[in-house]
Every structure is written in structure tokens, then in C-alpha cells.
Amino acid sequence: MLLNFALRRSVARVKSFQYSQVSRLLAMESPIARSQSSNLEEQAEQQQTDTAQGQLVQLPASRNRKVNLNTVLSQVGVESRPAKPAPPQLRRERQLQAAKKKSTPYIPGIVNLQVLGAGANGSPSAIYLFTDQARYLFNCGEGTQRLAHEHKTKLARLEHIFVTRNTWPMVGGFPGLALTVQDAGVKEMALHGPPHLDSVLHSMKRFVVLKTLKVNTRDCTEQSDFEDTVMSVKYVPLYKQQTAAPDSIDAHNQMVVAYICRLKPRPGALNLVKCVERGVTPGPLLGQLKNGIDVTLPDGTVVYSKDVSEPSETALSFVFLDVPSEEYLAALQAEAGVFQKLQQDTENEVALVVHFTPAHMLENNCYRAFMENFTQRTQHMYLNSPRNTFSGYIAAHRIQYQLNQLNARTFPLLAEALESCNSMNISTKLKKTKLSESANEENSAGECANADDALTETQATINSLTNFHLRPRKGLDRSTEAQLNPNEYINETQALADFPACLSKLKTELQTVPAPNCTSQYPKITFLGTGSCIPNKTRNVSAIMIQPTENSYMLLDCGEGTLGQIVRFYGKQRAEEVVRNLKAIYISHLHADHHIGLIGLLNERQILLQQVNVPLAEQKVLLFAPVQIQPWLNFYNERIDSIADAYTLIGNAEMLEKPLDLRETRADLSIDAVATCLVRHCPHSYGVSLTLPATAGRNEPVKITYSGDSMPCRDLVELGRKSTVLIHEATMEDDLMDEAKHKMHSTISQAIAQGREMQAQHIILTHFSQRYAKLPRMQQLVGGGEAKDDEMRNVAIAFDNMQVTLGDLEHFHLMYPALHALFAEHAEELEQKALKRELKLERKRKLLNTD
User: Fold this and answer.
1) Which helix (H) or strand (E) holds 810?
2) Residue 127 structural domain
3) Directed axis angle between helix 562-570 and helix 598-611, to 10°?
4) What CATH number has the domain bearing residue 189?
5) DSSP symbol at 750
6) 122 and 23 in one domain?
7) What is the pLDDT of residues 272-295, one digit of tens each?
8) Domains: count for the chain
9) pTM of the predicted model over 0.85
10) Torsion sign across C-alpha atoms 769, 772, 776, 779
């Protein structure tokens, strides 16, 4: 009798506890809690079984003792069942369960809009929307993946990219990002936007090889609006002003897309009393009702979620708007009804409007009048505002401030740093655009003139990592935005053990060394990108600026983000002069990290020349490149944007037999001859040599040779014989020779040997693997960075934003001890990795010997 009483009371306690757990879990906001509620019934049954199989049952207090239930059952002749051990869960099973859980629809509890790039100083305009269920990216300009990498914005769950235009400023970062996302394991991605996105992807197949990532393009003019469990997205096409609807979209007949996003409102709290009244039992049905899903009971009764829940939250909407020029204003006004209907919806509230619109359009009265239609509660975020003065690349500034202590001439502070630090103290409050009375009068009269400063007075600075929290609705959050802190970067170096002493020694040596043999300030060599494959925080992909004279520039390779590197290095005003005076661009081969930045640079150069009324036909840039690049350029010119007048293509193969003489045809370039050779890398890979004339302070001609990407190559040695400067790739450290050979790159020792063999006066190493973010692992440097047997006396290591003349190269080797001390921690990490590799190889050798 006591046993039966104990069993009944135990089961009652389990049921009572179970129902209280249902109430508690349903009140929780996390998806994990909701998923737990769907299994509560099975857990209750398991608890009852466990109680009947081995748990201790508390007898009445008068007995004051505990007995094992299995023992009691065996005494009364009831056979107990031993508890089965849970089978081990295989890794594949865990992955499948995780995928199944991810696919379970629910309304997310966290929705945050984060600024990746604010369009300042060559940075992209890009917004990353993430929830606890999915990730979305709005626009993907050059540099997007680098910003995501630097700020640890994970792209592994990115599945949808929405672009407002199919022009390069909005899609230029997609090739590099797609390769990165593919490496992260993403299998499928959707690309939403204007027509021809599929053609853009197809044209990139030569240099963007997607083996495991499937990209589905959605033409917003043909596809229905997008919807998933997080939000619905309405496509609003805006066509250029014209008399009739277009039959096709090309470079002369473009359109853009605005996006109206509406979050799925979260259902109100579940009313358990109403659930009980309708016969809903604890278990998965409660979880479905909580998520807004109607359920059917075993007796066929349908229980509607709205009948057993409190009122749901107000739906929030946010808008992405991009109006490139005045030619799109008519289309925007024609769609005014769509936005007015959005405002009049009593069950919806427009929380935010994100403006991808160019800066010059932000002051247009017609555009501002349209914005005035939004309510006072709607906030506006202007990504391309002139007040946004910081690109967000903190790591590049940190390392530049630190290197600047070694030699301010070789490592000048970036112009962006000086411009940004003066504009950080702007009001952080986002305000809605207000129009002056005079502006209203002008708009009522139908005039669309530009205002002077009415809009800019209400614009707030937006930086990378500025957040806008939509759910929970906290609004603007600037606590994590990217900012510069020069004092912090300098103090980091002073805390290093050996660096202050090495720096002091370097300063003394630089004051006592004899004057360099070459005193000419030209040519200047500026390294804009010194990394390989993909950009990281401190090394962008390949780009080297050669400046033969004051008003002449030539670019060797043009990886993604090269234009942004130019703007950040020189400053906005000076960068415009540099781009206008860019006379030639050389592309060594067609890997993405060597030419993806080309179209953006050509576009910008066209715009800048048009601003000063220079005929494009008279100022075409010489483009030295493999002729296989022509189909890609033709496609972009015909379908996206006109660039045919921006360049004159000269195939690299045309200069194999005989150097191209430029002394008479392009005297403004200040380069006498250009010669090329085939190198050992991918098909159609070339090395190049430039011959510069002698000038005042430089009695002899200067020969600059650039390897591009290449294994050690005999033809390159002959091409660069007796070069003044050899710029050679050094992707791998010496211990990774097999890997370098497999990827058809050179090691550090091989690059130096190439220079020795061709008798180059100076050797500059570049194109380092991204594992060498700060300093490559060089066996030539031992004992705190001292050059071994003067082997490094004429060898320099390239860093991003490093600028050298021939005179600077003569004394570069003096900085090695200080460089080694500055990056001692990084060097130690590289040594530890090398040691682990050696131990691993040693174990393999022992196993082979044992067999």
C-alpha cells in the first residue's frame, strides 16, 4: 500500500513539475527553449520510466528511510528493466540534427542591422543583417570581405545577397566574397538584384571558380517578392526616366532596385488557460502555437494560434533606397504610392531607411521631399554622406602607426588618419531629414534645385560597425563602431621587451649613415597590396604604384580594393590627382587577386576626367594585360557600364619578342620601354620590366622588373638582367617549398636567388601568404633580426602603404632588428607552427621506416 501511494505521488509530482516547466519554457524568448518545449511529453514519459526503474522513492516520514524501487519490485515479483545506455551520437548525426534544427521555422528573437562599410574613403557601402536564424547582405562592393574578416563578421551562414545596382561599386566585392564563403562551407547562395546578374557571374567564371558553391540569381524584374521565416522583401524597380518601359537593360538603359523589408511580427505570449480550455495538452502542440502555427488536436479540432495568444507585436519595416542620379527621380516619385501605403498601414511601422544614394543626390530637394513623407519615428542612415570619413580598416592604421616610428618617410601615416581624427566628434544622434521653409516652397513650385547645406546639417556620421537593433528594438548603437586610437597603437610598441632599445639604436644609425648614392626622389614605389589570394587585416591583394615623375603614375597589378587603398594612402583630394594622372596599368595574369580592382579604377578615372572636361579619347589609360581579359571588359561595357573609352588594351604577348618603345608615343608616361616574358605560373602569366630614362640626380636609366606570380623562372632572370630593382613574389617560407611548388609560387630564398642571378641592385619581396600577416618567417634573419652575413643588405620586405625611393632602399636593411622586435610575438607564433610541422613530418617518417 505504501509502495502504491509512493508511486502515485511520484507520478503526480512529475506531471505537476512537467506542466510548470511548460509554462516556464514558453515564457522564454530563445529558440532553444521553444525547441525544448516540443519534446516535453517524451521527457515526462522517460522520467516516469526512470522513476519506476531505479530512482529512490521517499517513504512516509514515520519510516524515515529510503529504499531502492528495483529492490521493492523484485520482492513483489515484478521484473525491473535495466536502463539502456544512450548510443553514442556520431558526428554526422549531430550535423544532420543541427541542420534540421536550423530548418525549423520560427520567428527570430534577435534582428540586428550592422554597417560593414559606410562608403567612406574607398570603403564599400554594405549592410549586414543578421538574426539568430539567418544572415543577409545588402550590397557587396570591393573590400566587403576584408572588412568582414577584420571585424570578425562571420560569413559562414550568409545565404542571401541583395544588390541595388549591378554596377561595380555594388557587386565588385562578390567574386572575392564568394570564394571566401565557399571555403567556409556554404553550399548555396541567392543573389537578388537587377537583370544580368547571371551574366555577370558567367563572365567571371574564368577567374572565379566555384566548385561547391551554387549561386542562384533572382532577377527582381521577373521574380516575385522574396519571403522566408524572418522577413518578406518587396522589390521596387526604378528605371531611368524614359518615354516607354524598356524591353531590355543595358549600359544605356539601366535600372536600380529598392528593397522594402518587413520583419515577421513575433506572436504574442501564449495564454495557457485558453490552451487548457481548448483541450491542448503539454507537448509539441504548445510550441507550435507559441510560434504562430495553427494545430489540429487528435479529435480533429483546429486550434488557432491567434485564439490562444496575446496580441502580436507591431510589424517593423526597413527600406534600402538607392537613387544614383536625377534621371531616377521620376521613377521614385511614380512609386510614391507604394511607400505611402507602407506608411498608412496601421499594423506596420517603418523603423529605418538606409540610403545607398550617392552623396551628391542627398542634397537634391526632390529627393529630400520624398524622404519627408516618412514619419517622425523613422530614422535615416546615410552611408555615402561626406561626413563619413573613416573606412573602418583599423588594423591597417595600427600597423602603419607602429611602422611609422621606424621611418616616417618609408612608412608615412595614412592621409585618412589625419582626416578622420578631426571629424570623430560629430553628434551621434540619427535625425530625420528636415526641409527648410524655402525648400518646401521650391518643391511646391516643382523646382528640383540642389540645396547648399540643409541636409548635411542633420546627417550623422556613420562608421563601420555602427549597429541598429530592430529586435529587441533598441535603435542606434554606436558602442562598438570602428574608431582610430593612435595613442593606443604607439603604447603597444613601448610595452614590448626589446623594441624601445632597437628603435633607439635604429634612430642613431640613420643619423650617422652616409648619404645614399641616388638622391633623386623619383621613381617612387608605393606598395598598395602585398598579400596573396585573399586580403587580410594588414595586407591587401596585389597592387604596386610606380611613380616615374611627379605627374605620372603606373600601376602593376590591380587587386580588389586598390582604389580604396589609393584614397586612404593619399587622401581624397590628392587621390583624385593620382587617378587622373594614372597613365598605364599592367596586369600580370588573370587570377582574381591581381585584376578584380581594375573596373572600379577605370570607372572612377572616367568620372574624374569628365569633371575637369578632359576628352576621354585623349586620356585613355594604357592597359597592358593578357588579351584573354577582353571578353570580360567587353561584357561589362555592353551590359553594365560604358568603359570602352577608358583604356587602350595592349596584349602582354605583343611585347615578348620586342620591347614596346614609348619614348615618342607616350612621353608623358616617362617610361622609355616595356618588355615582358612568360613566367611559370598559370597559363598566360607574364613578368615585366620597365626602363625609365636618366634624370637629374639619377645619372643612369632605371630598370624595374616585376615577377608577377611565378616559380623560379629562367626567362624572368634574362628579362631582368642587371635590374635596378627587382620586385619578386615570395609567397612561402623556405620550409614550405613543396607547397610553393604545388601552387607554382616562390619561396623567400628562391626569390632572393632570382635577384642574385639577374644581378639586381635591390630586391623587394612581396605577395606573401596571408599566414604572414605582419612579417614573413625568414631564416635569413637570426639573433634578434640581425642580417646573416649581410645576405639581406640589398633585400627589402614590402608592407602595405610602404613607399620607397632608390635611396631609401640602400638603408632598408638597418630596420630589420627593430622590425623583428616589433613583431616578436608574431615571429614566435610562426616558429611554433614550423616546429609543429617538423614534428608531424618526423612522426610520418618514423611510421614509414617502421613499415
Assistant:
1) helix 806-810
2) 111-266+313-388+427-477
3) 50
4) 3.60.15.10
5) H
6) no
7) 888 888 888 888 888 888 777 888
8) 3
9) no
10) negative
